[in-house]
């Protein structure tokens, strides 16, 4: 249980994380199980029109200089560097080719492959580029990974980070001076709200600009310019798979424009460079370079195996009810049924050794807890407290369990007034210690490149060592549509133990 942030116009991102336990806001996280980067939901009112007083000062920004300390901290926050020489060599070759075709062929770049299952890539103004192994796994050919790198290179050549920093500094200074110096806190607050809207819109415009510039560079470098649209389609399908197929609405304040909007933009940009079929995708070379790359979580950070979650570092494991798909995120283990009527959360919270577990629940839960529902009990030999909380649209069952020096929360939500107590008790009672044998046997999943024995995608999907929806995951991982046969003898990605 360890999120990812937008460093500099992170255009290809899935908001998720590795697994290191930490305290989280329960209600908000539990009801946002399918939140993904670039696809946030919500409603935002247009900002009030506020005239900037003539006395408000103006300022110029300063460019951020990324030093080695910044780099090391960033790499550490994403699980460290991932050692895959063949993959890294391919990324470096693609970058060199793109830089020669870019508007700044004199710019120096360095690529770092991050040991994170999230789908993410970003750039620093210094020319450092970062790609996660999760993104490498999702891309299906060299032109797709080149599209990602070209987008991030465009952020650097267009000086997006510097421009955004300058706008942020100016907005902060103006709102602060209006509130404090000119003694007008109301207008200052309005300006701050307005600047937030302007910054979000500015960031979205930067993403679209980087998309268009990236496609031009992609084509100029000789890669298939339609690779950008294919990758964004794969990303969109990944988000839909995580959300159970429910479409998401794009918040107008989201850092990134909606994926569907971006697919349309990059497809139009690719058409302007020429007809489909121009450029190369280098699919065979790409698949060879990523064969054996770790897929999904590192077992040391906790891993999902079917309905079971195992965390050797914490020494605990549990099983979720039938029909619940679980995901190991940075802050918690999250679960949901396909239709979203049942959801669950498991995380670790900070609690003093002498703090009562009922007090832990009260301190870490935002909604009202039924005072008569508190129950002290033993779960798997460990002290625990459970309780009931009823919201407007959801009913929650809560538990705080102390295992050694650690305190964990287990929360189950049911839509409506139905109390999920029976399923909740079975779930918390499954919490148990991980045996040394199980911990030793837990190996990371990996990508394996295999040759299709037949035209049936189902045959290859049966090899997938994934917790659920094996066929859907195989299709998304390989950029295939349902019902379209695979080509016998052609290579495809499968996930194996």
Key traits:
four-stranded mixed sheet, alpha+beta, 15 helices, 19% strand, seven-stranded antiparallel sheet
Radius of gyration: 24 Å
**Mean pLDDT metric:** 79
> How far do the termini sit from each other?
21 Å
From the spread of the alpha carbons, the general shape counts as globular
Largest β-sheet summary: 7 strands, antiparallel
| Multimeric status of the protein | single chain
Figure out the total of helices: 15
Strand content: 15-25%
The helix-and-strand class reads alpha+beta
Q: pLDDT below 50 for ≥5 consecutive residues: which ranges?
A: 2-10, 15-66, 245-255
Please, could you describe this protein's structure?
The chain has helices spanning 26-30, 68-77, 85-101, 133-138, 142-157, 160-181, 185-220, 227-242, 259-273, 283-290, 357-364, 421-429, 436-441, 457-461, 470-477, and strands at residues 12-13, 110-114, 120-123, 128-132, 294-295, 303-305, 308-311, 316-319, 324-328, 333-337, 342-349, 375-379, 382-390, 394-403, 406-415, 432-433, 445-451, 491-496. With 497 residues, the protein is an alpha+beta fold. The strands form four sheets. Strands 9-10-11-15-14-13-12 form a seven-stranded antiparallel beta sheet, sandwiched between helices. Strands 1-3-4-2 form a four-stranded mixed beta sheet. Strand 14 (394-403) and strand 15 (406-415) form a beta hairpin. Helix 3 packs across helix 5 (142-157), helix 5 packs across helix 8 and helix 7 (185-220) packs parallel to helix 9. The longest helix is centred in the middle third of the chain and has 36 residues, at 185-220. It is globular. Mean pLDDT is 79; it is low at 2-10, 15-66 and 245-255.
């Amino acid at each position: 249980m360890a999120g990812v942030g937008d460093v500099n116009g992170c255009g290809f991102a899935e908001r998720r994380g590795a697994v290191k336990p930490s305290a989280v806001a329960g209600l908000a996280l539990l009801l946002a199980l399918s939140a993904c980067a670039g696809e946030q939901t919500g409603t935002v009112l247009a900002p009030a029109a506020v005239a900037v007083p003539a006395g408000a000062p103006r300022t110029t920004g300063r460019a951020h200089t990324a030093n080695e300390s910044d780099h090391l901290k960033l790499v550490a926050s994403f699980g460290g560097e991932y050692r895959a020489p063949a993959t890294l060599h391919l990324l470096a070759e693609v970058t060199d080719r793109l830089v020669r075709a870019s508007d700044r062929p004199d710019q120096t770049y360095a690529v770092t492959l991050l040991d994170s299952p999230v789908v993410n890539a970003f750039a620093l103004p210094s020319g450092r580029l970062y790609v996660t192994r999760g993104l490498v796994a999702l891309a299906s050919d060299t032109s797709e990974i080149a599209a990602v790198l070209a987008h991030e290179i465009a952020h650097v050549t267009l000086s997006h980070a510097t421009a955004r920093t300058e706008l942020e500094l100016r907005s902060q200074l103006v709102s602060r001076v209006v509130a404090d110096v000119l003694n007008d806190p109301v207008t200052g607050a309005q300006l701050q709200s307005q600047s937030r809207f302007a910054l979000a819109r500015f960031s979205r415009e930067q993403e679209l600009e980087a998309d268009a510039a990236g496609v031009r560079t992609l084509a100029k470098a000789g890669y298939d310019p339609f690779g950008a649209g294919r990758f964004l389609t794969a990303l969109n399908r990944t988000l839909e798979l995580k959300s159970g197929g429910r479409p998401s609405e794009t918040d107008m304040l989201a850092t990134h424009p909606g994926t569907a909007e971006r697919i349309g933009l990059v497809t139009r940009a690719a058409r302007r460079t020429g007809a489909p079929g121009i450029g190369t995708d280098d699919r065979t070379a790409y698949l060879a370079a990523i064969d054996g790359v770790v897929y999904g979580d590192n077992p040391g950070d906790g891993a999902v195996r079917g309905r079971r979650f195992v965390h050797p570092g914490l020494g605990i494991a549990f099983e979720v009810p039938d029909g619940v798909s679980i995901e190991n995120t940075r802050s918690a283990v999250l679960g949901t049924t396909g239709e979203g009527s049942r959801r669950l959360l498991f995380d670790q919270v900070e609690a003093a050794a002498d703090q009562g577990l009922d007090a832990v629940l009260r301190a870490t839960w935002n909604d009202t807890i039924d005072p008569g529902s508190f129950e002290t009990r033993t779960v798997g030999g460990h002290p625990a407290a459970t309780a009931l909380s009823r919201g407007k649209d959801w009913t929650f069952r809560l538990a705080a369990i102390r295992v050694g020096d650690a305190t964990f929360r287990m929360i189950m939500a049911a839509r409506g007034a139905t109390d999920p107590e029976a399923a909740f008790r079975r779930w918390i009672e499954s919490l148990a210690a991980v045996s040394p044998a199980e911990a030793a046997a837990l190996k990371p999943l990996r990508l394996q490149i295999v040759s299709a024995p037949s035209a049936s995608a189902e045959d290859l999907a049966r090899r997938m060592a994934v917790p659920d929806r094996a066929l859907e995951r195989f299709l998304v991982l390989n950029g295939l549509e349902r019902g379209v046969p695979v080509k016998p003898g052609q290579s495809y990605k499968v996930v194996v133990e």
